[in-house]
Amino acid sequence: MAKADRETSAVTMKSQSEQELEQYARARAGRIQAQVSSFENGLEIFKEISMVRVRNKKNSLTILEDYTPVVAKVDGSVEFIGRDVYHELKNIKGFLCHVHNVFFLILNEHGLASPAEADG
Hints:
Layout: H1 3-26, E1 32-38, E2 42-49, E3 51-56, E4 60-64, E5 70-81, E6 86-99, E7 102-107, H2 115-119
Parallel strand pairs: 1-7
Antiparallel strand pairs: 1-2, 3-4, 3-5, 5-6, 6-7
């Protein structure tokens, strides 16, 4: 098998498992609660989420129920997926924290600089 064939099959397998995971998440009402805080929309709360997908420029993260605690920076998109819930936030920057099935997302609004950007 040529190198290009192996790379293509790996990508296909990944996308197929992503689809299966999303189908699983859409089939059930989850226990995750997401809280999104921004100056523009205030505090938004989404309930009965089974999966949170975070896609950054260089990597991605999928959070399911009872996932280990996570703190991270977001520079990309976030999707909240459940049986009756689908909400996507695109082209966002901010910080996330997930602990005890509560997902917190604090958005850095347009025009606000982080300390590193303010110094530059």
